[in-house]
Design a protein that fits this description.
Number of strands: 25
Oligomer: single chain
CATH class of one domain: Alpha Beta
CATH topology of one domain: Rossmann fold
Strand order of the largest sheet: 7-6-5-3-4-8-9
Radius of gyration: 24 Å
Largest sheet: 7 strands, mixed
Number of helices: 17
CATH architecture of one domain: 3-Layer(aba) Sandwich
Helix content: 25-40%
Shape: globular
Distance between the termini: 68 Å
Strand content: 15-25%
CATH superfamily of one domain: ANL, N-terminal domain
Length: 548
């Protein structure tokens, strides 16, 4: 009786899903396409291919072998893109260090990942100087220097990046390794204790690239990314591989623009000069750009922007649409590589008014191909797609991390019941759109009802005087919790609103049934700024520690 298994011919090639294969064909098919770094450097894909080979050979000359870990501390740059490929292509593991963590947290991640080689930009030498005596695993330091002279440092460098590349060969033989080999490691932002190590294999990164590419490449118009686009990340490359988009952009052969350290002047200049058409960022970055005095001088009508890391408010979405930006939500987590959903507008709604489109674009979105996503109750029972019932998002897809590095307990909790648990509460409507209402830990339990802090933030954010808002639950003896709204006011708004006026604004939404009347128990506090994590997300743990 046949079991229908495929029998492989002895001479047949079993094609492994490896990162090296993402680089190969754009170099052949689009060799003169450009890679741009700030206003300082531009080169072609052919040169990228050569520089990746030089870096791979330079690392091998330093003794880097399969299974070793190479760490990077850099701004978003062409160098980082070269590391995205060269390090895993020789079988090593790329550790993208979150440079915005504290020195002690950075030390923890270096030791925990067991980094063997560390590439460091001169801007981050002061951090290394603080911890260098306690780094136990790194044997070679490589300097990333953009200045004419080498900086003074007590660190003994094995070489400078460009000098090492200059001496290395432009041809490199990359081995066929097991596609399940670990390719990258990075660490969560550590808002709940020590950062946790998240890791991905070659196979997972390739499948995430293909799955996301299919999702953004198939729409007829809205949200569509194609070979004539110009890509610039505004999400740090140390954070989930800049959401995986540098791999996608390279695979598609797009012109790529890397802005280095994020500064509004530089970002807007590059968008304008290089005619950037596709980016991704957190809401705070877009807020920053919209407030820039030169924003009205730049044509943004060809710019597509995926917003993630925090909820896209309707007010921010409408501001983007007013500027003719194709703005929409993307959703994922560090643990999911990260993209799971995109809030693409279906064809029958493309001519709808901005208000109606914003409702869709601000949702969490439609799942990508190969994403098995459900909302479940506490017993893991799947809930109906009626747009009303909410449950935790659990997910399976080929590109999810298999656990946390050296952390069996949290890995088992992450994958309890055979699905990855996101900790996000959401509903799914009849059209298939996911809409997150809150994090499980951020839901405010008031008088027996659950209030979404995200929905309340969106409503308060519609007040014309409000620049930013975060809502947390404040303990209350009678009600259990009541919402505490922390509000940053616009500096250029004429009349300063009172707490009562903010509450009155919210009251209008309770009268129409948009949100429960329990929110009227809300307290309002005006603050100078909202605490953020190292990747720009609202840090509600820090806010609770400061204001409760």
């Amino acid at each position: 009786m046949s079991d229908n298994l495929i029998v492989r011919t002895a001479s047949a090639y079993t094609y492994p899903l490896l990162i090296k294969n993402l680089l190969q064909f754009p170099v052949v098919n689009n060799p003169e396409q450009e890679i741009v770094y700030r206003d300082e450097l531009r080169y072609t894909y052919s040169t990228l291919h050569e520089r990746v080979a030089r870096l791979a050979n330079a690392l091998r000359a330093l003794g880097v072998k399969q299974g070793d870990t190479v760490a990077v501390m850099d701004w978003d740059s062409h160098r980082y893109l070269e590391c995205f490929f060269a390090v895993p292509m020789i079988g090593a593991v790329l550790h993208t260090i979150n440079v915005k963590l504290s020195p002690e947290q950075i030390l923890f991640t270096i030791d925990h990942a067991e980094d063997d080689v560390l590439l460091v930009h001169t801007d981050f030498l002061p951090i290394l100087e603080q911890i260098k005596g306690r780094i136990s695993t790194v044997r070679d330091f490589i300097l990333l220097n953009e200045k004419e002279t080498a900086p003074e440092s007590h660190i003994r460098f094995s070489g400078e990046y460009e000098a090492l590349l200059e001496e290395a060969d432009t041809v490199c033989d990359y081995p066929d390794i097991d596609e399940h080999s670990r390719a990258t490691t990075f660490y969560t932002t550590g808002t709940t204790g020590l950062p946790k190590g998240v890791y991905f294999s070659h196979r997972q990164l390739v499948l995430h690239t293909l799955g996301t590419m299919a999702a953004i490449g198939t729409p007829e118009s809205q949200g569509r990314v194609h070979q004539n686009d110009v890509y610039m990340p505004i999400t740090p490359m140390f954070h989930v591989h800049a959401w995986g988009f540098p791999y996608i952009a390279t695979s598609m052969g797009l012109k790529q623009v890397y802005p280095g350290r994020y500064a509004p002047d530089m970002l807007l200049n590059l968008i304008d000069k290089e005619q950037v058409t596709f980016s991704h960022c957190v809401p705070t970055i877009l807020h920053m750009l919209f407030k820039h005095p030169h924003i009205d001088n730049i044509d943004l009508s060809c710019w597509k922007v995926v917003i993630g890391g925090a909820a896209l408010s309707k007010a921010l979405c409408l501001e983007g649409l007013r500027r003719n930006i194709d703005i929409y939500t993307g959703y994922g987590m560090s643990e999911t590589c990260p993209v799971l959903t995109l809030a693409l507008v279906k064809p029958d709604k493309l001519d709808a008014p901005d208000e109606e489109q914003a409702e869709i674009r601000c949702k969490t979105g439609l799942t990508l191909p190969l994403v098995d996503l459900k909302i479940v109750d506490e017993e893991m029972n799947e809930l109906p797609h009626d747009g009303e019932q909410t449950g935790e998002i659990v997910v399976r897809t080929p590109w999810l991390t298999q656990g946390y590095l050296k952390d069996k307990k949290n890995s088992e909790m992450l994958w309890a019941g055979g699905y990855l648990h996101t900790g996000d509460v959401a509903s799914i409507d009849a059209q298939g759109y996911l809409k997150i209402s809150d994090r499980i830990k951020d839901v405010i339990k008031t008088g027996g009802e659950w209030i979404s802090s995200l929905e309340l933030e969106d409503i308060i954010g519609h007040h014309p005087a409000v620049a930013e808002v975060a809502v947390i639950g404040q303990p209350d003896e009678r009600w259990g919790e009541r919402p505490l709204a922390l509000v940053v006011l616009k500096a250029d708004f004429g009349e300063t609103p009172s707490e009562k006026k903010i509450a009155s604004h919210v009251h209008e939404y309770t009268e129409t049934g948009i949100i429960s009347k329990q929110v009227l128990l809300m307290k309002v506090r005006f603050v100078e700024a909202i605490d953020k994590t190292s990747v720009g997300k609202v840090d509600k743990r820090a806010l609770r520690g400061k204001y409760l």
